Amino acid sequence: MRDLSVALSCCVLLVVAGGCGGRGSDVKRAYEEMDAAYEKGETAEAKVRVVKEFLARFPDSEFTVEAAETAAYHLGEELARPAEADVLLQELTDRVRSNDVRRGLAFARLPLLAKLGRPAELRALAARLEETGPLSYSEASTLGDAAIEGGAWDLALTAYERALTFLTPDAVTVEFEKSKLSEERIQRLTRRRQADALAGKGWALANLARRDEALSVFAAAREVDEVLYTGNTQSATGSYRGRTLLAAGRLDEALEALAPEALFGGDAQTRDAFRAAYVARHDGKDGFEAFSWATRERLARSCEDFTLADYGATPRTFSAVRRGEVALLTFWFPT
Amino acid sequence: MELPRLEKIWQKYRDKGLVVVAIERSRDRDRAQKLIAEKGLTFMLLENGEGDAEVVRRVFKVGTFPTSFLIDRNGRVMFAHVGFREGDEERLEEEILTLLHG
Question: H helices of chain A, where?
Fold first, then answer.
């Protein structure tokens, strides 16, 4: 869930790059104008406004789902107005004829229903979607994430099990045929998806009181997960595994599992679990700050040096730019 | 779009010993340069050269954009942040302050 914004911007980019023809040229122009205005939008409110204006003009186009997902993300996640987002998606659904677009809109509603605490509707919508066609990887993964957020653990389990059936390099190659990804990218993507789906499956199992199975699924997730420089994993495995160990009272293991995420950038739930494990292990929170800092120092890795050109084609070596100061290094992707 | 927020952070802490470097992942040079000009970015911006960027990506294992790292004065990676949402810059700023004062 944490990289939803990125996933969305990449979707938007792919759609623009993919292009469209025929009667869609007006829509395409309007979409591109909207995209430019969206980028300029300084606040979530402003972004939502331009996307909604576009959707009001062109409710039923090949851009509907992406635009609706974007609006729903800003409304539901950033502005904490999921009810408003859900109404928008329902109204759009009524104005759309294409079954594919209606299906896409239904998937966009799943996380909103979870957030709104309406698990019965979440389950009913998921069942309807299963009836209208088999779930793809991203559909299964969206359903799994929503089911986790809504606490519908059995639904989450079947969704991630479904997602895992797609995760062979062949299946990923077929899906990305048009994007011409390198073999290495496809392997990375496959591993990434496996790690995500295994993490979700394990967390569902842990919450269904099947803790031992959960821990063996997390072990499998760690095999395929990529570990960032800081010890963080790209999937939620570290956090879910640590919270499962905490619930099992295996406190030292929980602290070790939670530390990379809790200390190097994880979410509030992971940080809370780390603190809870420490308090339980040491019978109080005395020394927690010192312990955290010492653990951080122990786990931190040195930054490898590199040289890249700036936009004037001058080669820049990171260590020379940094000159022993504190550095903020960002990898970005223009959308 | 996270870069204007980084620009604000850079303006605020550049005199206190913070260096900001952004590496562009795409191969869409024109779009990147247009954005950089539009947003008036003044910190160090590096371009994706195909071979080098692969090295950087492989070294840092970045698979999601944006991803940010904070590096302390001893050259250790002390914080990673994946994605960017409204409000995230507060956490980032807190961590920067810890490292600047550490």
Answer: 4-18, 25-40, 44-57, 64-73, 82-95, 99-115, 119-132, 137-149, 153-164, 169-175, 183-207, 211-224, 237-247, 251-263, 268-282, 288-299, 318-322
